[in-house]
User: Which sequence fits this backbone?
């Protein structure tokens, strides 16, 4: 078979239809761009499809066989047919686009009708409910004007209602908050300890402080109900009836001018805040405290020997005066408590050998006997890293028992070493927290140069906020001593003169059995 020339291939392409090509033997279609290389080859037939050709490879190809002519849309064919095809395609696309645009317009019209109808209903509802109804929605915390279920407000009504809205959450988010340490003093009479008791009606120091902060506007109501939200922490817990002239609490407050005065105005007279300091964000009054000093204020007749003539007569006991020799003996007894010991018998719920029972005391002393009303009082001062529940009161009880002669000096060592030893507990009336110490924290501030003369401290002072500085208040010593004398020591002396609580406990101490639990255990073992 002779090679086909270019004009012969083109004529054959226009004269043959696609069906005759497909009926050829062993057809294989290859999609390939039209090139002169394929035009010069033999045994090839081409069918045009726009800019590409489908190549059919056949073993036999009779280009001269006659067949009826058929209209073919081709890039190299009838120009009129080509134009018809393009016109038909464009018209079909235009019809589809027109239909889609028509559908969109119909949807938009329906949406506009719905929105207009909804706006009319909202305006009518707003007129019926009035502006006050809209204000109530905002005050209830439903400040979302975009929802269909809420009342639509006009621009003026919105502005007016937003001015009225003074919700606690929005109010306190706009006020800067800072961590502060608060120095407070209080008389424990009439209170059930320092720590708050949620769900009960018993008054506590902490609950009174939180209520005053809320009323003063330095904390929102949610923080007053859940103090952990404001990082509230007390330095030391005091029991029922126990006072304090040096308690420190830390918390995060909303800064405002004259904070201390505003809180004090809401507090009862037997609870006072004497000082405030700005502290670091991670400051925790409990964890940052290096030591605590407790003081027990008691009549000196508790330290008299058992052979004293006024042993059972209160009037004769009032005439007793603590002499220097006796004072030295008391201080010698107190030295046995200094150091690290196991105080498992000076608390409840701990056994001998437990690590929690080991506590370290820096010092213990008796000093400053003085007259108050018609009684002579003295101060038992004990300083330690930390204390267990009732530890100080039981230490005072053991001291009184030794001074009175109800037990020997070896009884103190027995209380440290024996598994069960019944130590007497002194009344809570004379106990008070005198001071808490932050020596390590203050030393660190001084080393870093973060106290005294900083720009931020001056700015806080100018704004009336608490100043940054050492967690130490030497400037309030006079005010603190005055409160202690009038509200704490005076209250203890008056209570003792009227109720004789310490005196009655002292008389009952004679019947105390120090090894009561041990003897009961032995009796049970013998019976078994």
Assistant:
């Amino acid at each position: 078979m002779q090679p086909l020339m270019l004009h012969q291939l083109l004529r054959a392409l226009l004269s043959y239809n696609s069906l005759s090509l497909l009926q050829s033997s062993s057809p294989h279609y290859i999609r390939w761009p039209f090139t002169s290389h394929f035009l010069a080859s033999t045994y090839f037939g081409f069918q045009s499809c726009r800019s590409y050709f489908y190549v059919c490879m056949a073993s036999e190809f009779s280009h001269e066989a006659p067949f009826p002519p058929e209209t073919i849309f081709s890039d190299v064919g009838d120009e009129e047919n080509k134009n018809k095809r393009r016109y038909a395609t464009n018209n079909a696309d235009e019809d589809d686009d027109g239909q889609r645009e028509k559908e969109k317009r119909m949807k938009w019209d329906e949406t506009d009708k719905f929105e207009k109808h909804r706006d009319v209903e909202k305006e009518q509802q707003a007129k019926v409910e009035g502006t006050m109804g809209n204000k109530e929605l905002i005050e209830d915390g439903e400040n979302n004007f975009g929802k269909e279920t809420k009342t639509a407000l006009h621009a003026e009504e919105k502005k007016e209602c937003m001015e009225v809205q003074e919700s606690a959450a929005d109010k306190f988010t706009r006020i800067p908050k800072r961590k502060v340490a608060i120095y407070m003093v209080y008389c424990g009479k009439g209170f059930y300890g320092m720590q708050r008791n949620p769900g009960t009606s018993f008054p506590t120091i902490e609950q009174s402080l939180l209520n005053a902060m809320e009323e003063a506007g330095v904390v929102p109501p949610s923080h007053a109900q859940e103090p952990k939200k404001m990082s509230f922490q007390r330095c030391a817990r005091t029991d029922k009836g126990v006072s304090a002239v040096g308690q420190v609490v830390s918390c995060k407050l909303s800064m405002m001018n004259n904070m201390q005065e505003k809180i004090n105005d809401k507090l009862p007279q037997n609870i006072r805040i004497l000082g405030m300091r700005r502290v670091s964000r991670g400051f925790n009054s409990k964890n940052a405290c290096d030591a605590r000093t407790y003081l027990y204020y008691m009549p000196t007749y508790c330290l008299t020997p058992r052979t004293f003539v006024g042993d059972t007569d209160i009037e004769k006991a009032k005439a007793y005066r603590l002499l220097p020799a006796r004072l030295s003996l008391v201080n010698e007894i107190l030295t046995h408590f200094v150091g690290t010991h196991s105080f498992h018998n000076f608390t409840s719920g701990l056994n001998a050998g437990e690590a929690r029972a080991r506590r370290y005391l820096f010092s213990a002393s008796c000093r400053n006997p003085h007259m108050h009303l018609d009684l002579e009082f003295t101060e038992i001062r004990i300083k330690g890293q930390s204390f267990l529940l009732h530890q100080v009161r039981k230490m005072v009880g053991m001291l009184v028992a030794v001074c009175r002669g109800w037990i020997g000096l070896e009884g103190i060592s027995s209380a440290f070493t024996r598994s069960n030893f019944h130590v007497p507990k002194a009344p809570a009336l004379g106990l008070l927290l005198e001071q808490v110490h932050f020596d390590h924290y203050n030393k660190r501030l001084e080393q870093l140069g973060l106290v005294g003369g900083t720009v931020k401290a001056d700015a806080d002072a100018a704004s009336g906020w608490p100043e940054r500085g050492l967690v130490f208040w030497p400037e309030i010593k006079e005010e603190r001593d005055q409160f202690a004398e009038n509200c704490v020591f005076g209250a203890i002396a008056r209570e003792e003169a009227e109720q004789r609580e310490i005196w009655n406990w002292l008389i009952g101490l004679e019947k105390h059995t120090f090894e009561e639990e041990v003897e009961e255990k032995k009796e049970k073992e013998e019976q078994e």
